[in-house]
Amino acid sequence: MGLVEAFERAALALPHEEEFRDVEIVAHRARRSGRTTALTLIVDRPDGVDLRLCERVASRLNAMLESEPDAYTLEVESPGLDRPLLRPADYERFRDRAVRVVTTLPVAGAKTHRGTLRGVRANAIILQQPTGEFPIPLAMVKTAKLEYDPRADLQREKRERKNQR
Questions:
Q1: For 64, how many CA atoms within 13 A lie in the half-sphere containing its CB?
Q2: Euclidean distance between CA atoms 74 and 72, whole angstroms
Q3: Among residues 72, 121, 93, which one has the least CA distance to residue 26?
Q4: What percent of the chain has pLDDT over 70?
Q5: CA–CA separation, 137 vs 103, rounded Å?
Q6: Architecture of the domain defined by 3-77
Q7: Is CB count within 10 Å lower at the N or C end of the chain?
Q8: Strands laid side by side in the 72-77 sheet
Q9: Alpha helices in the chain (DSSP H)
Q10: Topology (CATH level 3) of domain 88-149
């Protein structure tokens, strides 16, 4: 088994370990970079990702890959504020959040669509736009990402604090 296969296996096994049960593997990739292989792992968790988590994940992956003879670099990172939405479950998890969806072909005359995510129905992502609900077939989604709006975050925090009282 090669380095890339060992990395993929280790990355997918990580959430099954007790210490990393709440960690979601958003994406993993490996690419050749000169004489080494650059390994990247993007992780998320409900409470968010901090530097300490990235360090713990990197340490665990390095331990799992120490028997590999090939040289590599490893980056463990958070998905960022503009987190990519990659699986149908992501569209439900991030319901009511602002998103930007780019399609492979024009839908209603455009390839880029913005709106509030309303989830998935049948095989389509539903965006709420000023003109109403706008379905986009999942098969036509090239990329979908959260759009960060600091005002919405502040309003959401304010609502949550009010509900906790």
A1: 20
A2: 7
A3: 93
A4: 99
A5: 9
A6: 2-Layer Sandwich (3.30)
A7: C
A8: 24-33, 36-44, 72-77
A9: 3-13, 51-65, 88-93, 150-164
A10: SH3 type barrels. (2.30.30)
